[in-house]
Amino acid sequence: MEGEMALMIPLLxxxxxxxxxxxxxxxxxxxxxxxxxxxxxxxxxxxxxxxVQKLEDxxxxxxxxxxxxxxxxxxxxxxxxxxxxxxxxxxxxxxNVSNQEKV
Length: 103
Hints:
mainly alpha
């Protein structure tokens, strides 16, 4: 038993530096993982910011279209398409007849 204890003391003394090296290695790996995660998060945040900016730009364009006089033009074009459909089906009164001609 004393012989075993005499053998264990030097082995324990030699294993302490290996344990210290292993612990430092684990700390470095954990630190690198945290940095990689932070870097990945920053990259995703930049991508989301870019997407949000694009969407805001598109909303601004849509707001301009809706508040602009051009929106009325688009509505009038659609109304003309509806009239053309009526004229092609040969139903209703032609639009080129004025009120004076009816009387």
